[in-house]
Design goal:
The protein is of the alpha/beta class. 41% of the residues lie in helices and 16% in strands. The chain binds 2-amino-3-ketobutyric acid.
Length: 311
């Protein structure tokens, strides 16, 4: 098995992806890389290297010298943080992508995974069951960078035959690793506060419906997409993927069903505007048809697993 590199491996997706890839392909096959100097405990079952996705030559040399053939590029600034630092968000979210696309174009890499997001959609997009191909006018820096990235992925595939694959992730809910800087982060934080104090103040209003997904589904979907035969991958920008959709008040009701004394309050902040520009729910029929995608966790099942596992 040729070597796989996960860049941005200490983040919410990266941590669980490295663990899943290692249990599938072997610990030594999957190199975890991140800005952090020291490897976190959870990733110490395999190789780790300190690597900055913005250090183009450093990344190039490492990949060429170590004969890495597959890269998952997860280093990014998410929606809320990106609004506070637009220049850096654009730089980080775009430059690393070109480094990897160019390596694939030059024949050093066989396959690339790059994450897109539901943030590619905007207020003019149909909000319910948002189709795979539709109006896309993102209003956030993060969304603009993801939409531009999608265009570049498709371009490198069409012009240079680069095997690049991508998913428009919804908000991801996990208990092994924390999210950081996203608009959907409330849907993870709520479980920690429910367990710690039984109270949660949400930075989005009660009726803000957003597409979400339990991390096990997201990781399985990512690996299934990467393992699918190339001729089945008809979308080279990024696939819509649906898990479950809910609003903060609906999520709170599901938590109250298992923890009746749980209380929620609402204090919407600047993230409300971001959330209001995103879809309520996603149509993922293209992913279902092309490579057999199907989510396993609905809101109820996800809430149960989260409450059982969050410490
Ligand atoms: C965010 O909230 O920024 C992310 C995303 C939906 O891409 N979780």
């Amino acid at each position: 098995m040729s070597k796989i590199l996960v860049l941005g491996s200490c983040g919410q997706i990266g941590t669980e992806l490295v663990l899943a890839l290692r249990s599938k392909y072997g610990n030594e096959t999957v190199v975890a890389a991140d800005l952090k100097e020291d490897c976190p405990l959870i990733l110490q079952n395999g190789p780790y290297i300190q690597l900055d996705a913005l250090q183009r030559e450093h990344v190039r040399n490492y990949i060429i010298e170590h004969q890495i053939k597959e890269v998952y590029l997860l280093a990014a600034l998410l929606s809320a943080t990106a609004e506070k630092n637009p220049d850096f968000a654009w730089k980080l979210n775009m430059e690393g992508l070109f480094t990897i696309l160019d390596l694939a174009k030059e024949g050093y890499l066989n396959k690339i995974f790059w994450p897109s997001s539901i943030a590619v959609f905007g207020p003019t997009t149909p909000a319910d069951q948002t189709p795979q191909h539709t109006v896309m006018e993102p209003t956030t820096v993060y969304g603009i960078s993801k939409q531009a990235g999608e265009r570049w992925c498709e371009y490198y595939h069409n012009k240079f035959g680069v095997d690049v694959r991508s998913i428009r992730y919804p908000g991801l809910i996990s208990y092994k690793s924390l999210p950081g800087g996203g608009t959907t982060d409330y849907a993870v934080d709520i479980f920690y506060k429910a367990k710690a104090s039984g109270n949660f103040t949400c930075f989005l209003g009660p009726d803000t419906m957003l597409p979400m997904m339990f991390m096990d589904d997201a990781i399985r979907g990512t690996i299934e997409l990467m393992e699918a035969p190339a001729d089945q991958i008809k979308v080279r920008s990024a696939y819509n993927l649906a898990g479950c959709s809910f609003s903060p008040s609906e999520l709170a009701s599901e938590i109250q069903a298992l923890q009746p004394d749980f209380k929620i309050a609402y204090e919407p902040d600047f993230r409300q505007e971001i959330a209001d520009s995103w879809p309520n729910s996603i149509d993922d029929s293209a992913a279902q048809k092309d490579w057999g995608w199907k989510a396993k966790f609905d809101t109820k099942a996800m809430v149960q697993v989260m409450l059982e596992n969050v410490k």
